[in-house]
Amino acid sequence: MDLSQQLKDIIEQHKHTEATDFDYLIGEGGYIPSNKEILTDIIAALVQGKNVLLKGPTGSGKTKLAETLSSLFNQPLFSVNCSVDLDAESFVGFKTIDYQEGKQIIDFVPGPLVQAMTHGHFLYIDEINMAKPETLPIINGVLDYRRQITNPLTNEVIKAKEGFNVIAAINEGYIGTTRLNEALKNRFIIIDVPYLQGEQLKTLIQENTELKDDQLMSQFVQLSNDLIEASQQGKVSEDAASIRALLDACDLSSMIPPKRAILRSIIDKLEDDREKEVVRNLADTLFE
C-alpha cells in the first residue's frame, strides 16, 4: 500500500470524529497544528490531487507545514520564493551554453516547476501574492485539470507526472503584495494557518529549540500570547508576533539572559520605536 492510500484510509477511519491523529506519522520536529483538522483537511486535499493555499501571518509555520507535508507524503519539495522580480525563468528554467563532444550547444536547465512536474514531486510557492500579476498566469494550466504547461523557452509541452502537487503560501496585507485574482484563487483549496499558542507552542519550543527550562518556556508562551494580542490590537506588527522570531529568542535564552535574547531576536528587527517599546514592556513584565 502506498503512502497516499494509507493517508486516505486514516482519514476514512476518522472522518466522523473531530480530529485525526497523525502524530505517529509526523514524528518529532514536524509541524504541530493548532487544530488537527487543519492537517487532516490539507492531507485530504493533497491525496485527491488538489492544490493547497496556506494563508496566515508571518512566522505562523506555513513553510514548516509544507515541509511536514513533503515528509508525510515522502515527496521531495521544490521551492519558489516569489518577489516582484520573479519571472517565467524562475519557475520554468533557463537556457545556457554548454559543450557536448567538443561542440557548443544551447542547453535548457529546468527550474523548480519543471522538475517537480517531471518527477511527480511537490512544488512549494512561497509568498505567491508577492509575484507580479503578469507572471502567475503561466502556471494556470499547471493548477487546473490539465496539469500541463508549454515551456515558453523550448515550446515543449510538459505534463505533470502522478504525485505532483502544488502548495502555495501568502501573507496578506504586506507592502508589495497583490490581491490574487479569482481565476488563480479558485484553483486552490484555502487553509487558514493561525499562530500556535498554549500547549502546542510549548511543545514546539521543546522540540525545536535548545531551551530546556520549563518555567522559561511557559514565560515565552505567555509572551507570544501577549504579542499576538498586541498585534491584533494594532499596537505591533505581525513581525513582532512571529513564532519564528520567538523560537530564535528561546534558543538564545539557553545561553544568554531572556530579555537580551528578546532584544536580539524580536525588538531589534522592528523599525518603529513605539513597537519596540511595547515589546520591551511586555518582556519586562515576564522576565527579570
TrEMBL record:
SUPFAM superfamilies linked: P-loop containing nucleoside triphosphate hydrolases (SSF52540)
Domain (AAA+ ATPase): residue spans on this chain: 48-277
Annotated Pfam families: AAA_5 (PF07728)
Molecular functions per Gene Ontology: ATP binding; ATP hydrolysis activity
Family note: Belongs to the CbbQ/NirQ/NorQ/GpvN family.
Designated name of the protein: MoxR-like ATPase
Species this chain originates from: Tenuibacillus multivorans
